């Protein structure tokens, strides 16, 4: 079984409840085909970079799953004929090079770092250095040699 993820761009005129049911429908399809859902996220309504089928916004859903390649063909076929899906991307993830993280986890970490949470700044600081300590201004060897 390989690790895959799909991002669905759903028609923003569709009620949120119906859009979530659409995402659930595809998750059930994956499970019926002996796939395993790893992670799902509803990113909500986001502005598009360009208009897609006359829409300036879209509802985004992420589904990360493990399955065989036979599931991919079925998913792509269903995505193609579903009028509520404006766009979709289905990619294979190399588990050795890429760690799955929730988008919300990354946002929280950035927010804590932006607010200056001592916990985050201490974790991210190189070992042996104090957080917020001013750098010492010592001339480099190159500058000393130039002056001589």
From TrEMBL:
Q: For this entry, list what GO says about its biological process.
A: translation
Q: Offer an example of a GO molecular function term for this protein.
A: structural constituent of ribosome
Residue stretches of biased makeup (Basic and acidic residues): 100-111, 117-126, 137-148
What's one GO-annotated cellular component? cytoplasm
- Which keywords label this protein? Ribonucleoprotein, Ribosomal protein, RNA-binding, rRNA-binding
Instruction: Indicate yes or no for the key word rRNA-binding.
Output: yes
Which InterPro entries does the record cross-reference, listed alphabetically? Ribosomal_bS6 (IPR000529), Ribosomal_bS6_sf (IPR035980), Ribosomal_S6_plastid/chlpt (IPR020814), Transl_elong_EF1B/ribsomal_bS6 (IPR014717)
Q: Which Gene3D superfamilies match?
A: 3.30.70.60
**HAMAP family for this protein:** Ribosomal_bS6
Q: What does this protein do?
A: Binds together with bS18 to 16S ribosomal RNA.
> What is stated as this protein's family in its record?
Belongs to the bacterial ribosomal protein bS6 family.
Q: What is this protein called?
A: Small ribosomal subunit protein bS6
Q: Source species, please? A: Flexistipes sinusarabici
Print the organism lineage: Bacteria, Pseudomonadati, Deferribacterota, Deferribacteres, Deferribacterales
Q: Its encoding gene is what? A: rpsF
């Amino acid at each position: 079984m390989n690790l895959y993820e799909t991002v669905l761009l759903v028609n923003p005129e569709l009620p949120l409840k119906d859009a979530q049911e659409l995402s659930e429908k595809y998750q059930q399809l994956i499970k019926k085909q002996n796939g395993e859902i790893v992670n799902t996220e509803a990113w909500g309504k986001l502005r598009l970079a360009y208009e897609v089928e006359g829409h300036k916004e879209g509802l985004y859903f992420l589904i990360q799953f493990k399955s065989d390649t036979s599931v991919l063909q079925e998913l792509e076929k269903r995505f193609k004929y579903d009028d509520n899906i404006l766009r979709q991307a289905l990619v294979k993830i190399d588990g050795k090079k890429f760690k799955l993280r929730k988008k919300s986890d990354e946002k929280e970490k950035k927010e804590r770092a932006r607010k200056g949470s001592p916990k985050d700044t201490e974790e991210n600081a190189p070992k042996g250095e104090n957080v917020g300590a001013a750098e010492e201004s010592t001339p480099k060897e190159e500058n000393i040699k130039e002056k001589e």
